[in-house]
DNA sequence: CTGAAAGCGCTTACAG
DNA sequence: CTGAAAGCGCTTACAG
């Protein structure tokens, strides 16, 4: 590997000058500049990022911690984050924690030791809050709150509004017997959405019928069976996310129900999958691209000493497709 | 941030000793060891990985370059890679190139400048082969060949066998009029699979009916329409991957076909999605977990001077589900 | 405009 | 067993 010294020697200047040419960090005599440029292309010199990082105390790496890939919401978010990071000259390190607090803590520690410029946290384990607080690098939490002062920002969708939107839509589609599948109530996002649902029930004089469900395909299957047992007259289901909606859809079909004729279903997130499957899934859209980009921008702002909005709340919208129908 | 010097001072030893205690790289007097350990926990010292990397010329980072996330094959592979990397003390940097050679080249260069320990390449652009050859770090190519000497290994499924398996299955399911959707023939994997299909046609005295299609949902829609135009009597479709199969399924359903009664469909890959959708997709399984783990192991073997198998070929298997049926 | 020097925070021969 | 020294490959005050 050729180093900056080799280039300097070849160009007949000092390493400092080579550095200045590469980084445009000071004026350099035109002719020396040429010699340096030539020497660089002759040797194929690539500056060592690690050495630069050591000095700069920034590795231009953004760490992302996501629970899993079963839910495409996280992979889509990661995609957006990578794209935005790359465009700004950063790279993304991705960790799937499988919701294991130990792995999350370990990853946070490692990111901090690597001089990462920040962490985007998409998991929801409270056990790791201590690690988050004193990891020493900026953190952006997606869809959850952390009680820490310092460089911690939040990116979240308007879940309360989402809960209302979903409930109102099914009511307007003529559903008489709606069941809500809420996410785990230990998550603030799930609580907010549940409130939206309940308030809408009140507003329209509907009974609250709710079952709690983790955000997983398997749990979705179980909950779907339970819905059919407990609410055999169900004609509308609000699902806690698109994956669970697909899961519920599958169970209902196996029981012979037609969707949306017999039972209408609405999801949450609007992952790409929602419009790939047949029938296409009606859902509440979270603006994933905007949210991901904002998360990256927060990190970079912290890293570069800019101003950062601590709370970033994004609007949700109803995406009407084929699993609901105006009757 | 506290450094190794601070710890050394507090413990009354030299930085060398602290280093040796942390890394277990030499015997240290029991009592001094205790003092160091105490000093570390007192100060909350976390060694700086960047400094270590600079010396070691290894950042314990494995770079992954994937084209996109539309095809879950790549995200599932990335998940496996991250898991295996983490288990071995490495981290994963992930780049989505969107198939842009420029971004791929840039990422390779950057990974090399970061002293990454290796690159797992899941893209298929030949334009970048020069970059691959002289990036200076080990590369593992998934499902493609690169003509380079040095530390380049290959991980691939047995596509020829896969092509045969798929064709034979549809024939055995009683399809009389099979259409094959091949992947782009510029990819060796797609060519191998096509050969398997053609050889099976010969063996059973079937006509070769093939359309080429890129691995994308949108292209799948177009090809499906074309199949219906050109082969209206089609009763079996071999798809170049699961995503395209889902896409084809959608088009056929919109045209009123029942699956599998009217037309049978078989995919390729066996991504998780294949068994989540309704009906569940019959497909040819690639052993994604094994392939991803092997890719990581190759990189680590190169990095640690172990022996590496250059060509790693994995068996495929038929996964029979609901989109095909024995008639 | 430019070079020598010091330093980023570690690790490892080297000598004792 | 252990410390002082040198070095990993850059960058940036500093002095000229």
Task: Please give the oligomerization state of what you see.
Answer: homodimer
- The total count of strands of chain A amounts to 12
The parts of chain A where pLDDT drops under 50 for at least 5 residues are: none
| H/E element sequence of chain A | HHHHEHEHEHEEHEHEHEHEHEHEE
Radius of gyration from the alpha-carbon trace of chain A, in angstroms = 25 Å
Alpha-beta classification of chain A: alpha/beta
Distance between the termini of chain A: 70 Å
Number of helices of chain A: 13
| Basic shape of chain A | elongated
Question: Roughly what fraction of the amino acids of chain A lie in strands?
Answer: 15-25%
- Spatial arrangement of strands, main beta sheet of chain A: 2-1-3-4-5-11
Largest sheet features of chain A: 6 strands, parallel
What brief labels describe this structure?
homodimer, 327 residues, alpha/beta, six-stranded parallel beta sheet, six-stranded mixed beta sheet, 12 strands, DNA-binding
Descriptive report:
2 copies of one chain form a homodimer. The first copy, chain A, has 327 residues and is α/β, with parallel strands linked by helices. Chain A contains 13 helices and 12 strands. The first copy, chain A, has helices at residues 4-11, 15-23, 30-43, 49-56, 72-87, 101-113, 129-133, 159-172, 188-204, 217-230, 242-254, 273-276, 288-303, and strands at residues 61-66, 91-96, 118-121, 139-142, 152-157, 178-182, 210-212, 236-238, 264-269, 282-285, 311-314, 317-319. In chain A, the strands form 2 sheets. In chain A, strands 2-1-3-4-5-11 form a 6-stranded parallel sheet, sandwiched between helices. The longest helix of chain A is centred in the middle third of the chain and has 17 residues, at 188-204. The interface between A and B is large, with 52 and 52 residues. Chain A binds a DNA duplex (16 and 16 nucleotides) through residues 1, 3-5, 13-17, 19-20, 23, 25-29, 32, 47-57.
